[in-house]
Specification:
heterodimer, A: 311 residues, Methylamine Dehydrogenase, Chain H, 4-stranded antiparallel beta sheet, 29 strands, 0% helix, globular, B: 591 residues, alpha+beta, Ubiquitin-like (UB roll), 4 domains, 7-stranded antiparallel beta sheet, 4-stranded mixed beta sheet, 18 helices, GK21478 (chain B), phosphatidylinositol-4,5-bisphosphate binding (chain B), Sin1/Avo1 (chain B)
């Protein structure tokens, strides 16, 4: 598949696949009739798209014309909030409101569960450390976890009481972990790993009062120089990781900005918002370059996998 | 069951069956305003009532006993116009509704010709679902965790210590005291380029599909929303491709114009090389599945696509109406005049006038030809002008055809120049109705008003302000001094009161209004000449609405009135003209 695609999903129970540079919708897939799309991710080989929602996890084949899923998880309880893949596609993690984060061996046929972690509260967010063995997690009771799936050790921190962690992110260079909560605050820890391959240690670095309302997503740019936070206050803010000062503010007034994704060179940003429109922004000028229109309700998740072509 | 020998029943049954099985929607424009069985009945009643002196029950009983031994040439009786002669009919209102044949149930999910049992369909659906499910791998989410056998399954990866850019930025910040960069510059691209940047550079902005706003009518993968699949032939494609339809799936609630936009969107995606005009240039035509376009007018832009049951359509440039429909149009007017002989000549006049107005037959060059052969020698501007002109006339024609179809509007009735109450205004070829919406304020609910179209004389936009428009509908006032001038054709619905009745409900002036209303339509007599007396008074209702709706209403209503061309309307316009003349002459005298 040579063309770059953007996948979006939302409250209209559909997943749409767009040609990223033109804004044309290539494909529409029916998700589950009873569920919104909470998160989307593509397998590293880009052939499959994984989507999770209320009581469901599904994997779709992007190369066939068939819009039915190729893998379906059964007897899923409650919302599945996040999923993602290890960089070789060997395993997938899922996080859900059933308090558990699961690791799925995708090399087995059929895929099977190889690890389970109990967060003791609904898990809102999970992300993979670039070292491919640690997973950062955030739960509804305000805890931030770092879990080593290899040794099964973990560390827990509660940055703010009576707040729910909405998203966690680890920078691609492995230096920072960020967690955003429902009060609009974003906490940053620096991660240090020892050469003897033990688990990384967390050291509080900074607290940003990023938004006036809910933070919905936080993400680091591929070059690790930018941190993005999206919020229910109708903005997406971009912070420089150098000193964590605000660099850009993108505004979609009166709508929640649910999700966002950087291009590989960190120059462009896709946003998904509750007006049912996905947008492509040129960060340098803060201008909107493309609209992706077609969803009939709020877009809550998007996925974009880019690559570097030249240096 | 009514007898099959009852001609009236047969007539009305054929009519209703035709309407209910017609997928095209054409019957509505041709037939709906024009219910022959009803017309005959009404005509008969008028004649009969004017002639009879005895009570109704008696005559009905007479008619019944008469029917049994009647010879075929006997004069018609009222019962000949009743579908179900056995039923006792209490009043005229009931008569009207009983002229319909039994209710025909439509099953929306059955589009095909053949009815299939529900179980057969369900079984087939289950079977398809089963086959689909077989292709989907299923995993139990709650299964026990099995640690990976391979020790290397979770493999720690060395994170490349820092990006190449990192030292640069940190050094620039540390040594930045001397050379402060502007915040926009401090993230230079370091020569990194992503595939997205590359592709965006190659595709400038204008490649964004200009029909993109119609993409949201895509029906594929819509959950819980009715959708419709249509095969659309595209007449603008060249030979091999145009024989194969574009398969689209749209949301059922999409209007035809939106379907056209969606087809354009799909076309521009699939055939980027084909130049498309704006959607106003296109129309959807009924088509056989061998892609032969039929000689019917295009589907109405304003209707939802769910209304039509076609599997195949053709998208083509709008063309002038085919001759077939023109004949229909004449026919319709002809039928109408036959129903009431008295009006025949005046209606014929109106028809000629109407046709003249919309200049369908005025011998101009066929604008469709001009369209098709465009780009030769004629200037573009000229061509566009002719297209616009043509579209305008086409719209006019459609307006004329559709004017008698019932439609309702929601707007505010102005009350004593001050109070407003929200009402629905229903307009059809037979009457206008004003019905107040529930519980606007604390005062009591007002009676709905229904006025036969014969009493309505004119509709105009009386006042235009920036956002609001005062719409005025004129009708004949009942509170004329002499009773001889009551409306002749008012048979079914008495006109209930004047403006004041509606406005103040139970108050004193309201009851006065009721007292003025004509006692009963049965008393009206057919006195054609008496119409033309200038004693007739007119009253008006004022509405407050926006310009767009006001134009729609006044167009529709005036179309109807124009076609009927009643003497009352002429009288009204005449009176008004005289008034204007008087005012003018006064002014001239003063100056």
């Amino acid at each position: 598949m040579n063309q770059l695609i953007l996948a979006t999903g939302g409250y209209d129970h559909t997943i749409k696949v767009w040609q990223a540079h033109t804004g044309n919708c290539i494909k529409t897939m029916r998700f589950v009739e009873t569920s919104q799309v909470n998160a989307l991710d593509r397998t590293p080989d880009k052939t499959r798209l994984a989507a999770c929602g209320y009581q469901c996890i599904r994997l779709y084949d992007l190369e066939s014309n068939c819009t039915a899923p190729v893998i379906n998880f059964e007897s899923v309880q409650k919302n599945v909030t996040r999923l993602g893949f290890q960089e070789d596609g060997n395993w997938m993690f899922t996080a859900g409101e059933d308090h558990r984060v699961r690791i799925w061996d995708m090399t087995a046929a059929p895929p099977q569960c190889s690890r389970v972690f109990d967060c003791q509260a609904p898990v809102n967010a999970a992300c993979l450390h670039p070292n491919q063995v640690e997973i950062g997690m955030g739960s509804q009771n305000g805890s931030v976890y770092l879990w080593d799936v290899k040794s099964e050790k973990h560390e827990r921190i509660v940055p703010e009481v009576d707040a729910s962690i909405q998203d966690v992110a680890i920078s691609p260079d492995g230096h920072y972990l960020a967690a955003g909560n429902n009060k609009g605050n974003c906490y940053i820890w620096s991660l240090t790993s020892s050469p003897d391959q033990k688990m990384s240690t967390l050291c509080p670095k900074k607290k940003i009062s990023a938004h006036s309302r809910y933070i919905l997503r936080c993400k680091f740019s591929p070059d690790s120089r930018l941190l993005l936070t999206t919020s229910g206050d109708g903005t997406a803010c971009i912070w420089k990781t150098e000193d964590f000062t605000k660099w850009r503010e993108l505004s979609i007034e009166n709508y929640w900005v649910w999700d966002a994704a950087f291009s590989a060179d960190s120059k462009w940003l896709f946003t998904a918002s509750s007006d049912g429109v996905a947008r492509l922004w040129k960060l340098h000028t803060k201008s909107q370059i493309r609209d992706y229109k077609g969803h009939t309700k709020a877009i809550t998740a998007l996925s974009f996998k880019d690559e570097i072509v030249s240096k | 069951m009514a007898t099959y020998s009852n001609q009236h029943w047969l007539l009305s049954h054929i009519r209703n069956s035709f309407i209910s099985t017609d997928d095209t929607g054409m019957c509505e424009t041709v037939m709906l305003s024009n219910d022959l069985p009803k017309e005959y009945l009404r005509k008969f009643q008028i004649n009969f009532q004017s002639g009879r002196s005895a009570g109704k029950t008696k005559s009905a009983a007479l008619a019944k006993s008469d029917r049994i031994i009647r010879n075929p040439d006997a004069p018609l009786q009222e019962c000949d116009f009743v579908c179900y002669p056995g039923l006792d009919l209490s009043d005229d209102e009931d008569l009207d509704t009983s002229t319909h044949s039994f209710d025909i149930q439509m099953y929306p999910e059955v589009g095909a010709h053949r009815f299939r049992s529900n179980t057969a369909q369900k079984l087939e659906k289950l079977d398809i679902a089963k086959r689909k499910a077989a292709r989907i791998k299923s995993i139990n989410y709650n299964e026990e965790a099995q640690p990976p056998e391979n020790n290397d399954f979770f493999k720690r990866k060395e994170v490349v210590a820092t990006h190449k850019q990192r030292p640069n930025t940190s050094s620039s910040s540390s040594s930045g005291s001397g050379q402060k960069k502007s915040p926009d510059d401090d993230l230079s691209d370091e020569g990194v380029q992503s595939k997205l940047t590359e592709q965006l550079a190659k595709s400038p902005k204008q490649t964004q599909n200009r029909f993109i706003e119609y993409a949201r009518f895509d029906g594929t993968a819509q959950v819980g929303m009715p959708t419709k699949r249509i095969n659309v032939y595209l007449s603008m494609l060249s030979e091999p491709e145009r024989n194969y339809p574009l398969k689209i799936c749209v949301i059922s609630t999409a209007k035809i114009i939106e379907v056209i936009g969606f087809v354009c969107y799909k076309t521009s995606e699939q055939y980027p090389a084909v130049p498309l005009k704006s959607i106003q240039h296109y129309a959807l035509y009924m088509t056989e599945d061998n892609d032969d376009m039929e000689d019917f007018p295009p589907l109405d832009n304003r209707e939802p696509c769910s209304k039509f049951g076609f599997s195949h359509l053709t998208l083509a440039e709008r063309r002038p109406l085919a001759p077939v429909t023109r004949v229909d149009y004449h026919g319709q007017l002809g039928n109408k005049s036959m129903t009431s002989e008295e009006d025949k000549s005046s209606l014929a006049d109106a028809a000629v006038k109407a046709l003249h107005n919309i200049s369908l037959n005025n011998g101009q060059a066929d604008p469709g030809g001009g369209l098709a052969g465009g780009g030769g020698g004629g200037g573009v501007a000229e061509e566009e002008e002719s297209v616009r002109d043509y579209e305008k006339r086409l719209l006019n024609h459609i307006d004329m055809l559709e004017a008698p179809i019932h439609r309702s509007f929601r707007l505010n009735l102005i009350d004593k120049r001050f109070f407003k109450s929200e009402v629905t205004l229903g307009i059809s070829g037979e009457r206008i109705e004003i019905d107040q919406l529930k519980s606007t304020k604390f005062w009591s609910q007002k009676k709905p008003i229904s006025t036969p179209i014969d009493l309505v004389v004119h509709c105009e936009i009386a006042e235009k302000r920036q956002y609001k428009v005062l719409l005025r509908i004129w009708l004949k006032s009942n509170s004329t001094s002499s009773s001889t001038f009551s409306a002749s054709n008012c048979t079914s619905v008495p006109l209930d009161g004047s403006v004041t009745t509606l406005n103040t409900g139970g108050s004193g002036s309201g009851s006065a209004g009721i007292a003025h209303s004509p006692s009963s339509p049965n008393h009206s007599t057919l006195t054609n000449s008496s119409f033309l007396s200038s004693n007739i008074r007119f009253k008006h209702y004022d509405f407050d609405t926006d310009l767009h709706m006001a134009e729609q209403i006044s167009n529709k209503l005036n179309c109807i009135l124009e076609m009927r061309s009643s003497p009352l309307r002429r009288e009204f316009l005449h009176q008004r003209e005289r008034k204007l003349e008087k005012q003018l002459s006064k002014k001239q005298l003063k100056s």
